[in-house]
Amino acid sequence: MNLGKLFRQPYPVPESAGNEWVIGAFVGGFLLLFQPFGISDWHTSDKMFKVLGFGAVTTGVMILFDRGTRLLPRYFAEEHWTVGREIAKILTLILCIAIANRLYMSWLAGLSTQGGWLWTIGITFLLGIFPAVGVVLTNYIVQLRKYEQQAAHFILHKTAPEPPVDTERVPVAMPVPAQQPIGSQQVLFVAENEKDTLQLNRDDLLAIESSDNYCTIFYLKNGRLAKELMRSSLTRLETQLGEGAPFVRCHRSYVVNLDQVERVSGNAQGYKLHLLDGQLTVPVARKYNDTLVAQLKGQ
């Protein structure tokens, strides 16, 4: 795999773990202990608190950076996130921390903010680029192997379809079986405007995907994949489905029919559910892994 293709591989969006204070404390402690970049030559009062201030600046930048990423949910959505984007994000964060700490140092020492920027940025990237790339690539390989290996052990026991009836051998006088009540076999979706509706056989429903204020309903129509866009929240449509298997939430944006899942694969972002000969792929969020895996294996 060439480097360009590697950088385009899916990568999991890290969940905010609230570790900004831990990293800030590490930065402050490291600078206080080893006193690099000429800090050992400082002769000033309250030196310890001033050095620890670099850690506080680092924490503040990380918190603001995290808040900023939430303003662009589409760009930072996991379905678009890649190895390359994660590396670029980390390097951008390191650059922001370097600029903020450079301004803090100028304020402490009463230095001009005109010079020293190229040196600061150069040193920052030399110190940050290799660990950043190494951490991201290592995590990518670990997650990829984990989900690929676990997905390979899934054996989905789907019910085999009943063989077609040979009509030539059926006696003419054979009574026609009574049909099941419609209410137990069909589901009616009603949009928020209470006017747009979609009624279909429960077994034909494949999945529901949410996007902003709309949902896309994927279902079988005459044996082919069909979809219907409806203005509604996913929670509303999930409620209209009723409780219990085989319809389960597997992602904040997806509900899936487990009876229609034909194959499970894995990449660095987690499991992928494949339906209808791969025509439809549904992601599984990591927080749903344990419950969904147990349900799939119990089929």
Structure characterization notes:
It is a single chain. Residues 159-183 have low confidence and may be disordered. Helix 2 (20-34) runs antiparallel to helix 3, helix 3 (47-69) packs antiparallel against helix 4 (83-109) and helix 4 packs antiparallel against helix 5 (117-151). The longest helix is centred in the middle third of the chain and has 35 residues, at 117-151. A hairpin with a 6-residue loop joins strand 1 and strand 2 (197-201). It is elongated, with a radius of gyration of 28 Å. It is of the alpha+beta class and 299 residues long. The chain is built from 8 helices and 10 strands.
Structure in a nutshell:
The protein is α+β, with helices and mostly antiparallel strands and 299 residues long.
Question: What's the SSE blueprint?
Answer:
Elements (H helix, E strand, L loop, with lengths): L2 H5 L12 H15 L12 H23 L13 H27 L7 H35 L30 H4 E5 L6 E5 L3 E7 L2 E8 L2 E8 L2 H8 L5 E5 L2 E4 L3 E7 L2 E6 L4 E4 L5 H9 L2
Antiparallel strand pairs: 1-2, 3-4, 3-7, 4-5, 6-7, 8-9, 9-10
Helix pairs in contact: 2-3, 3-4, 4-5
How far is the first residue's CA from the last residue's CA? 36 Å
Structural class: alpha+beta
Main sheet properties: 5 strands, antiparallel
Radius of gyration over C-alpha positions, nearest whole angstrom: 28 Å
Spell out the helices and strands N to C: HHHHHHEEEEEHEEEEEH
> How many DSSP E strands?
10
Strand order of the largest sheet: 5-4-3-7-6
Name the poorly predicted regions. 159-183
Mean pLDDT: 83
Share of helix, binned: 40-55%
Shape: elongated
Q: Helical stretch count?
A: 8
Strand content: 15-25%
